[in-house]
Structures are given as C-alpha cells and as structure tokens.
Specification:
Strand 2 and strand 3 form a beta hairpin. The termini are far apart. The protein is about 50% helix and about 20% strand. Helix 1 packs across helix 2. The protein is built from nine helices and eight strands. Strands 1, 2, 3, 4, 5, 6, 7 and 8 form an eight-stranded mixed sheet that branches. It has about 260 residues and is α+β, with helices and mostly antiparallel strands.
C-alpha cells in the first residue's frame, strides 16, 4: 500500500568518471571504497536502530552510488528530520571528496528496505536530473507540509525558523532558470560541528577540492564534457563563496575562490 511520505533521492556527482579513473589511480579507488562503505554503514545503522530511525518510520536504501531516504509525511517534525539527515550526509561525503545532487519531495510512495517505488520516487528522480548543479532541490510542498506536521514542541513560527536554517533560494532548474527554487543549504551548518575549527577545516578542504576538480577537467579532451563539468564546479564555488562571506566574513579574502 502506498503511503504519503517525504522522499529524498541523491547520487554522487561524476561517479562514473571517478570509477573509470580508479582503474589506474589507486587513491581514487580507495576514496570510492571509503565513501560507499560509509553509505553502507548508514543503511546498517538505520536497519538496526529499532529505537530511533525505525520508530519514526525512516527507510533507507542504497543502490550503487545512489541513496534513497524516506519518512512518513504525517509524522511530526519529519520534514526537518529528512532535511537534517541529508545535510549531515552531504557534509560527511564532501569531507570524503565527493559532492551530491538530488531532490526531496513528498507524495505517494512504497518504501520497504530495498524496495522503493511510486509517483513520489519518480518525481524525486526527475528533480535530481533537473538539478544540474551539485545541489539538493527541495520541493516547496515539503516545507509547507513540515509546518503543518511540525515538531511536537514547536509552534509554526519556531518550525519555520528551524526549516529556514536548512534551506535557501537558488536559481531555477533546467528549463525554468528564472523561477527560484529551494535548495538544501548544508554548507552553512557550522553549528552541526562539535568545534568551530572543524568547520573551518572542512571549508579549507572544500576550497582545495573545488579548485582541484575544476583544474582536472582541463585534462578532458571532449570540450563539451569539460565545459559541463567546470560549469558545475563554478556553481559550487559560487555557493562556497557566498557561504564563506556570510558565515566567516573575516576569512573571505583569504578563502574566496577565483577562477582566472
């Protein structure tokens, strides 16, 4: 039977190319193994955690480099729960040298262990394809439903504040670039780190990662493919720069990314 559920579909951007590279680059092979083990451990934790994740109806599936997470749409606070789950995953996977793209929506879904299908799943997959850049697009209906079924201790204003911390507006999707969309703003979540110095360290590593991956694209002979990859990292660099300027403005001149 279908349920109304929040569902997130995300995958690792450029995973196929990294697999090809891993054939002759052992360090790339190690990174792929490391990140996939991390995702597998997330699934294991979800399946075995009967007092938390399963209690609130959380389902987690892994398909190669793709992740599907869902929560009951009528569960209190579950819009926040799925957003913060994805934010933590994005930060952890970024620290391992990979970036994600995906979509989060709400609708009819059947999701039990590795079996996942339904109109909401189809929509989430389409959102991932249309996202184009390394970002997680959030359906506005997720946010509006989250206000209706908010956390037990929160009023509407408090829930809105919590949700607004996790999302920001960005340019539109393919075919509707002039219409803003909501995206998961995980880079801004410095409060999720036990020590602010760890956040600074991640941002330093992120800066190096973006510059390196942008530069590596010059090695690609296919001009269209090269431009496509670099366009994605230019977007991510702009997102990174805006975050630095907003969260740690004193570091902006030092850490800003400029592509000559």
């Amino acid at each position: 039977m279908y349920e109304m559920r929040y569902v997130a579909f995300i995958d690792i951007l450029g995973f196929k190319n990294k697999v090809y590279k891993s054939v002759y680059d052992s360090s790339e092979l190690h990174r792929i193994e490391n990140v996939l083990k991390y995702i597998q451990e997330l699934k294991k934790q979800n399946d075995e955690d009967s007092y938390s994740s399963k209690y609130v109806g959380r389902e987690f599936s892994m398909f190669s480099d793709s992740i599907v997470i869902s929560y009951p749409a009528y569960g209190q606070g579950n819009a926040f729960n799925i957003l913060i789950d994805l934010a933590h995953i994005c930060l952890e996977i970024l620290a391992k040298g990979f970036i994600l793209r995906g979509g989060i929506t709400i609708g009819k879904l059947f999701h039990k262990d590795v079996v996942c299908f339904g109109p909401a799943m189809n929509m989430a997959v389409e959102m991932e394809k249309n996202a184009k850049y390394p970002r997680i697009i959030v359906d506005q209906n997720v946010l509006s439903n989250g206000l209706r079924y908010r956390g037990i201790a929160n009023n509407i204003s408090e829930e809105k504040d919590f949700l607004s911390i996790l999302v920001k507006q960005d340019r539109g999707i393919i075919g509707n670039d002039s219409i803003p969309v909501y995206i998961l703003d995980y880079l801004s979540l410095f409060n999720e780190f036990d020590d602010f110095s760890y956040y600074i360290m991640l941002m330093e590593e992120t800066r190096n990662f973006i510059i390196t991956e942008f530069g590596n694209a010059f090695l690609i002979n296919d001009l269209d493919k090269r431009n496509n990859i670099q366009e994605k990292y230019v977007w991510f660099a702009n997102y990174y720069n805006r975050t630095i300027k907003n969260i740690i403005p004193n570091y902006y001149e030092q850490y800003e990314i400029k592509f000559e």
